[in-house]
């Protein structure tokens, strides 16, 4: 199968970035030749205006196309060079897409908490990484490093981690590690012998923050060795699954969704569903009041939350988190998969979502769609 258009790609990224980890793993698994560059590289100045936001990952293809956003980078390869990591079975495709959106949007609380709330263990390591983003001749390099780190530390609260919710966030994360660790007893990847789109989404928080920063890395190694091995495996070109002995390299049998994976989704549903329901309610009201122009941005700069916050309940705790339309943008794929299949398959999808307490996800739809134009997520008609 043709994998790429032959030349070398440039990936603007950073070793400690949450979202860059997802795109990097995809390029590795797809055997795409690429060179990683820092956002501090002089060439990024020309790329930034085309990417519209200075976020990583941003990819430049051999013919000069600039693609900002991890999901868009993956979609580019899946649609241009062949569908390799999106299962053909609509049930598996739906589960894979669900893991993708939860990985990229639903695990920011543990990812931020375990990065920023353990300064004694993490800060020296993080300082090295953030300092290294700036070129050595950058004026006030140290001060700039501290400012970036302090700005990002505030996003922990923005996502809903406070003194009142900290234990809940930790409890849910430990349950997730436990459930994933049990699942990986049976298969090397979420859906069998090959990674799916959902593996890449889940890798975003589970690699860049949770498997690398000193405090959570130790926790993962100690509590969930199989999850740690999956993180390693996802960053290697080969299947890297010797401990599964003769496991093949395909997805599981048509339509098979293992019970251990349902158990993982059940853990994830606990805050993902109420947050998504509350966020959709908020945004639908906001859309009817503000009626944003078609083509206006539905994405904002990191550290800002211009739309406001929502409150939702998880196990008797109230979480207050910033609104991010992006999760609804990604959920559109799940709605599209559901809408396009025959009734019999729709019933099976509903059964699976019900069994993992995610039935509401199908009904949580915004009154306006979100699309992508010139590298930005924008409101459509
Ligand atoms: N939706 C984007 C999010 C990318 C993102 O927020 N990346 C972070 C680093 S992990 C970033 O570049 N932040 C810098 C900024 O927003 O200015 C994606 O999936 O690629």
Strand content: 5-15%
Counting DSSP E segments of at least 2 residues, the number of strands comes to: 8
**Mind describing the biggest β-sheet?**
4 strands, mixed
Count up the domains.
Answer: 2
General form:
globular
Overall pLDDT, averaged? 96
Q: Explain this structure to me?
A:
- The protein is built from 14 helices and 8 strands.
- The two termini are 37 Å apart.
- Strands 2-1-3-4 form a 4-stranded mixed beta sheet, sandwiched between helices. Strands 5-6 form a two-stranded antiparallel ribbon.
- It folds into 2 domains: 9-80, Glutaredoxin (3-Layer(aba) Sandwich); 90-110 and 166-379, no CATH class.
- With 381 residues, the chain is α+β, with helices and mostly antiparallel strands.
- Helix content is 52%, strand content 9%.
- The chain has helices at 18-29, 44-51, 70-80, 90-106, 108-116, 119-131, 141-158, 166-183, 197-209, 214-223, 225-234, 259-290, 326-340, 343-355, and strands at residues 9-12, 34-37, 58-60, 66-68, 309-314, 317-322, 370-373, 376-379.
- The protein binds glutathione.
- Glutathione is lined by residues 17-20, 54-57, 69-71, 104, 301-302, 326.
Topology:
Layout lengths: L8 E4 L5 H12 L4 E4 L6 H8 L6 E3 L5 E3 L1 H11 L9 H17 L1 H9 L2 H13 L9 H18 L7 H18 L13 H13 L4 H10 L1 H10 L24 H32 L18 E6 L2 E6 L3 H15 L2 H13 L14 E4 L2 E4 L2
Parallel strand pairs: 1-2
Antiparallel strand pairs: 1-3, 3-4, 5-6, 7-8
Features:
two-stranded antiparallel ribbon; Glutaredoxin; globular; 8 strands; single chain; 4-stranded mixed sheet; 381 residues; alpha+beta; binds glutathione
